[in-house]
Each structure stands twice: as C-alpha cells, then as structure tokens.
Amino acid sequence: MSKDTASPPSYEDTFTRTPLSRGQNILDQLTLVRAQQIRSVISQHIIPLIEQQALYGIAQTIIAMIPSDTNLPAEAPPKSEFSFDNSDAGKQVEVIGFASDEQPQIIRLQGHMNRTEFWRPEVIIQELERVLGDELNASPNLQRPQPPSENLMQVERKPVKKSFFGRVSEAMNQEGENRYFSGPPTAEKKRMEGPGKVLAKARLEEICLRTVNEFGLYDTMTKQCIIIRVDARC
Fold first, then answer.
1. Domains in the chain: boundaries
2. pLDDT band for position 4 (50/70/90)?
C-alpha cells in the first residue's frame, strides 16, 4: 500500500464543517436580498415622491409606507376629467393622529417581499435610513445649488445686526428643527445636518389608519407602518 495515499477526513471534521458553510451561505443570501429589496423600494417609490414634493417647493415630507400584508381596500382608479365626483370618497386610506400640517404621503407596498415581517427588524429600518440618506444627497434634483463665483463674492460684506424679534424667531426655528429630527448629537449627525444636506429618518411605528370601503363605510385599524421623515435643508 502506498504511503502517499491521502486518508479520508474524519467523521468529526465533516460534521462540523458542513453546518458552518450552510449557515454562512444563508447569511450571505439574506444580506444580498435585503440590500436589493431596500434599494428597489427607495428607487421606485420613495425618491420619486420626494422629488415630486421638491418640484412643488416642499422641503419637509413625511411618508407612511404600508406593508403589503395590511388588509386595505383596493385603490380607486384615477378620476376622469369628465367625472362629476369631486368628493374625497376616492381616498380609501388615510393616516390619522398626525397634525394637520404633517399629513403623511402614503405609499402602499405590494408583493410578498414587502410584508411586515420583512420590515420589522431594526437593522432593516437602519439600513433603509442610511441608504435613503445617501441616495437623496446624490440625487441631481435635490442637490444644493452651486455657490456664486469668486469674482461675485469679492464685494465687502457688512455684518447685519438682528433685532430682538429676529433673534427670537431664529431661536424658535432652531428649536422646531431639533424637535422634528430628535436624537442624541453624534459626529455623523452633525456632518449630515449641514446646509445643503437632505436629512432622512425612518422608524417602524404603530399608526392609525382610517379606511373607506366601496359602500362608503369607515373603519379604523392600528397597523405597523414605516414612517419616513425627510428634510431638505438648503
């Protein structure tokens, strides 16, 4: 018998290596699928809505993303220009509990991948917030306007003294901004909160939804939705 013949691996080595390899494959698959789904939702649903708001001159936008497994009435077909119905009956889903000036824009997600169980983990919401912030600040429709050239900025500027009411107004505005995007101050947050940055915050919240069925009857339910707050600071 030849001495260089390799002996087969022991039973213990085979038993311990296989589960680790399969487990790593599962983790890699989860990471890839999650990243693809988050970017798909951002590019197809979230960014087009925010860019549309920006075209209307709206800097702050609140979005309520409703998972696909939430039982809601079917979306109403778009109204014809010849329709005589000018009521709000076509608004089958409405988010209640927000201030009148903070009514969220609703995105109704579709498909098995957009069920609540996909969006429930905190790591998914954190990744959504991170990727959305990066994508918004790279969007050509939301980029900060270019500063004037050096020749135009050589004019001497004199400091403008603010009145008492001007200082009070500035303090109130700053307090409102801090309340809108609350959270402990961090180096990353300070870097992202500079002028010309688009801030994005996301969290999974239980909100109240009011629905209207085809018979005009109202119903109220409490469901978990993804609430996204966007502030374009320019």
1. 12-75+89-143+178-232
2. low
